[in-house]
């Protein structure tokens, strides 16, 4: 007799199956890339029926978008954490450390990072509305921080805050790509490059 989803999910309630599926899917792509992920493999990994994941994700594209969304939540949390320190620590030190922490986070979650900023979703797939929203919101948070750092004379302001934010953002992600794609395999080398990049962005004291 065919088992029902309710029976297969056992201890999973409808509300907590979603994060369980999302976590398992993230683990699968971390182990073998997004091509190794399928709705069937996910169901088997979690121990639910083959149809259970479809109650939460329309298809694989929607699942990959959800993984990317979680990545944006993680980097947004990182930005919030460093901004809490602004009242008690040097802004230039905070900015420098943020660069290093971001690069480390991107490397530790390489497959998720690729979904956040790569072509699989944004060019070849179909980004969901919620993914588009959270990605725009994160860049807005980044822009707001760059504006504040500019106002505090921490970073160079030779152009508009938007253009400055875009250039700093592009530099940060370029460093992530160099490490994630294996161009630079030694962390010490990338650390030195990141320090040099930040030094160019920081406003020199008079």
TrEMBL record:
PROSITE patterns named among the record's database cross-references: HTH_TETR_2 (PS50977)
DNA-binding residues: 38-57
InterPro entries named in the record: Homeodomain-like_sf, HTH-type_TetR-like_transc_reg, HTH_TetR, MT1864/Rv1816-like_C, Tet_transcr_reg_TetR-rel_C_sf
Residues of the HTH tetR-type domain: 15-75
Gene3D superfamilies, A to Z: Tetracycline Repressor, domain 2
Pfam families: TetR_C_33 (PF13305), TetR_N (PF00440)
Keyword tags: DNA-binding, Transcription, Transcription regulation
GO molecular function, one term: DNA-binding transcription factor activity
Protein name according to UniProt: TetR/AcrR family transcriptional regulator
Species this chain originates from: Amphritea opalescens
């Amino acid at each position: 007799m065919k088992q029902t989803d309710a029976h297969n999910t056992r201890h999973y309630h409808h509300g907590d199956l979603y994060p369980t599926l999302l976590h398992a899917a993230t683990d699968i792509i971390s182990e073998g890339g997004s091509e190794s992920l399928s709705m069937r493999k996910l169901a088997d990994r979690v121990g639910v029926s083959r149809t259970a994941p479809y109650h939460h994700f329309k298809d694989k594209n929607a699942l990959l978008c959800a993984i990317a969304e979680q990545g944006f939540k993680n980097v947004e949390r990182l930005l919030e954490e460093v901004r809490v320190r602004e009242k008690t620590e040097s802004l230039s030190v905070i900015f420098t450390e943020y660069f290093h922490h971001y690069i480390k986070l991107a490397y530790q979650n390489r497959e998720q990072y690729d979904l956040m900023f790569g072509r699989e979703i944004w060019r070849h797939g179909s980004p969901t509305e919620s993914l588009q929203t959270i990605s725009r919101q994160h860049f807005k948070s980044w822009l707001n921080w760059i504006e504040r750092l500019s106002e505090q004379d921490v970073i160079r302001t030779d152009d508009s805050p938007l253009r400055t934010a875009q250039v700093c953002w592009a530099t940060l992600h370029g460093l992530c790509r160099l490490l994630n794609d294996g161009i630079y395999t030694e962390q010490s080398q990338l650390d030195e490059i990141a320090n040099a990049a930040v030094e160019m962005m920081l406003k020199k004291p008079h």
